Amino acid sequence: MENPTTTGQVPSLNMPYRTFWEKTRRFQVALLFLLPSLILFSVFVFYPLFRTIYLSFFLTNQKGLPTVFVGFDNFIQLFQSADFLQSVKATFLFILYTVPASVVISLFLALLANEKLKGIHFFRTIFASSLGVSVAAASVTWLFIFNPTMGVLNRIISLFGIQEINWLADPHWALLAVSMTTIWLNLGFSFLIIFGGLQNIDQSLYESSSIDGAGYFYQLRRITIPMLSPTLFFIMTVSLINAFQTFGQIDLLTGGGPGQTTNLMVYAIYKDAFVNFNFGKASAEVVILFLLILIVTLLQFKFVEKKVHYQ
Fold first, then answer.
1. How many angstroms separate the Cα of 19 from the Cα of each of 5, 13, 30, 96?
2. What is the pLDDT of residues 99-133, one digit of tens each?
3. DSSP per residue, 61-103
4. Is 195 helix (H, G, I), strand (E, B) or coil?
5. What pLDDT is attached to residue 116?
6. Pair 142, 182: CB distance under 8 Å
7. Do residues 227 and 205 make contact, with C-beta atoms less than 8 angstroms apart?
8. Which residue numbers delimit the ABC transmembrane type-1 domain (predicted)?
9. Which letter, b or e, does each residue of 12-34 get, where b requires 16 or more Cβ atoms within 10 Å of its Cβ?
10. Residue 284 exposure: Cα atoms within 13 Å on the Cβ side
């Protein structure tokens, strides 16, 4: 390439400005393409988030409009409230019941469905069927299953000489009953994701280990689980966040009872905001819930992700 100084050509002084304006135009075009998404996120995500944080520092009227600035009083009252602390406890118990069970059962079903057996396609469809069932339909179905007099579940346990249980009205069993419904609802999605992860594992790894004499459980521990760990980590993270946000089955099955034992945080927020019209308190609960989800998710990424084996 010829040097402009040797050929007598003088470099254009407008070149840096031209490059700057070209980059500016490209940025404007990119921003134009992003504008619809930015508008949607601003209206449905960012504005509600900042509005909720704002309302958490106020007392409000029945229309949700702020009236008196109270600072952190809403938060202080919540942590002094036995009902709120009970809802936090119930939420974490619910997570403990549902998330590990959903992941383990889905993994077990996916391992079964991954086997090359006759008619396995039918069972794959059955295992994933709950994905197409709405929360309302599933809750109504389980409402009949848990019926203390005509329910299928009580008839099954009576065959083993166990006394019939009032699943949804007994404080000792209500949260477990709702957890069973939630586990069934989550199985379809978790099964499909884990099954897809199993299908993507290189089969040559199993063939090589089989030649070396490795058995099924050794392959499961040394090949399947490590190669599936990104998928399992994703499922655990999504299931944990969904468990924090559970509402529909609580509303339809127990209404937060009996004795606040199934009054999870989201349902408590719903009652405070749209039943008691205490929007300031409800907004403070939303902020606490958001912080809890954020902290738990960050802890997952800090400690659990270290054990994830990325290919």
1. 22, 11, 17, 57
2. 999 999 999 999 999 988 888 889 889 999 888 89
3. -TTS-EEEE-TTHHHHHHHT-HHHHHHHHHHHHHHHHHHHHHH
4. helix
5. 85
6. no
7. yes
8. 88-300
9. eeeeeeeeeeeeeeeeeeeeeee
10. 21
> Could you give the maximum distance between any two Cα atoms of the chain, in Å?
104
Beta-ladder partners of 59: 68
Would you say 265 and 149 are in contact if contact means Cβ atoms under 8 Å apart?
no
Query: Cα-flanking dihedrals φ and ψ of residue 144, to 5°?
Result: -70, -35
Q: What is the spatial distance between Cα 128 and Cα 132, in angstroms, rounded to a whole number? A: 8
Among left, alpha and beta (phi > 0; psi -120 to 50; other), residue 259 is left
CA gyration radius for the chain?
27
Quote the pLDDT of residue 21. Answer: 72
Residues 210-246 as b/e (b if ≥16 CB within 10 A, e otherwise) read eeeebeeeeeeeebbeebbbebbbebbbebbebbbeb
* Interatomic CA distance for residues 208 and 204, integer angstroms: 6
Write the DSSP symbol of residue 164: P
- As a whole number of angstroms, the distance between CA 187 and CA 194 comes to 10
- From CA 185, how far away is CA 139, in angstroms rounded? 9
The phi, psi pair for 215, rounded to 5°, reads -90, 180
What is the SS3 assignment for 282?
A: helix
> Does the pLDDT value for residue 287 go beyond 60?
yes
Query: In this structure, are residues 99 and 107 in contact, taking their beta carbons and an 8 Å threshold?
Result: no
pTM of the model: 0.87
Q: What is the dihedral of CA 150, 153, 155, 160, to 10 degrees?
A: -160
Q: Tell me the residue type at 245.
A: Q
Measured between its terminal Cα atoms, the distance across the chain in Å is 44
Average pLDDT, stretch 160-178? 92
Neighbours of 179 (CB within 10 A): 23
